[in-house]
Amino acid sequence: MIHWKSRLIAISSFCVLFGSLDGLAASFTPLPNPTGGYNLRTGVGISADGSTVVGSGFTTAGPEAIRWVNGGSPQGLGFMAGGTQSYAVGTSADGSVIVGRGDALQGPGDPYPGNTSTQGFRWTEADGMQSLGYLPYGGYYEIATGVSADGSVVTGYSDGSGGTMAYRWTQAAGLEGIGTLSGNGSHSSQAAAISGDGLVIVGESNGAVGDSLGAQAFRWTETSGITGLIPLPGSNTTRAHGVSADGSVIVGNSYTSSCIECEPSVLGRNNAVRWTDQGPATLLGQVPGGDQGSNALGVSADGSVIVGLYQVNANDPLRGFRAFVWTADGGMQKLLDVLLTQGATGLSGWTLLQATGVSADGRTIAGYGLNPAGEAQAFVTTLNVVPVPPAAWLFGSALGLIGVIRRKVKT
Hints:
The chain has helices at residues 4-18, 335-341, 390-410; strands at 27-30, 38-39, 45-46, 52-59, 62-69, 75-76, 86-91, 98-105, 116-124, 128-131, 142-147, 154-160, 163-170, 174-177, 189-194, 201-209, 212-221, 225-228, 235-243, 249-259, 266-276, 282-283, 294-299, 305-311, 321-327, 331-334, 351-358, 364-370, 376-382. A hairpin with a 3-residue loop joins strand 13 and strand 14 (174-177). Strands 2, 3, 4, 5 and 6 form a 5-stranded antiparallel sheet that branches. It has a 4-stranded antiparallel sheet with strand order 1-29-28-27, with helices on one face. A 4-stranded antiparallel sheet has the order 7-8-9-10, with no helix packed on it. Helix 1 packs antiparallel against helix 3. By secondary structure, the chain is mainly beta. It contains 3 helices and 29 strands.
């Protein structure tokens, strides 16, 4: 006879895999739009602990940076001095520091006093939204794109002497340009993300990597400077969008003129890729059934979970996108399918367009989509387990259940 404890262990193991017990199913939470306004169709960021999502919405005051804490009501973050719009894109590990861009009125001592320009900001509850300043000979635009886990280091890009340049910001040093790739046509760079420890910055720069010349993904550290990341074979453009906590895994896309092995075979497509230990780009694959392009946008702390978008309709670049989640074991999967498989509810009528951020443990994913009314709206979802292929779920759970029962029967 099977002991009652054996049955409980077996049933619990089965339900953890399938999310069928109360509280174990994956969750899907639409993030409320601002009162009287709507969510802007822009990427959203998420804190490493998964508690805070940041983005932007159209409020009664105009386009405004907002945050949601634990899926609650949206909180407007305000504007810089003299500004009328702001957009949040990134947050520290605990959600206490938020960065982005907005417009602000330049004051005495600024490059163009009395003029309004785009400026990057760093926001805290205590100090509100503070401009980060400018690079030398800049002053027309500066944009913050990422922040370290403790909120002390910010990255982004700014105009300056000779063109646009990626920067690193600290309270002590202010904005410091990090340079561009070498090679013909090298005159600009844009940072997209920074590692949790603040030591690695990634983005894109004009320059040369091997035989490729043009926009190339880069990795920067203080000791090595800015170095190009090797693209996929046949690629002439690469972009880096996200980086793991220690900087060892970078994700983005590599554009190729053709993809014969892709389904369907298409000419000219972006391919979601990752770089590990600065090695060559590795293709993340395709969602089941194939796609017409993809782009990796966010990565977990250890690099094991990657999120982004894939393209289902090349003729519709906005509504033709759908969100994906990737793991080494599961490959690239449709986020919607994973959520439904894990028992999430409330998804009827939703189109999940992009997954743009993921928590440190890879389980909480933020993005935006179209709600049942066809309106843009941000969402956050928490998986009950890191996704694996559906067949593996069934096989693994069955073996686990049978194995436990057999062991208990023999005893």
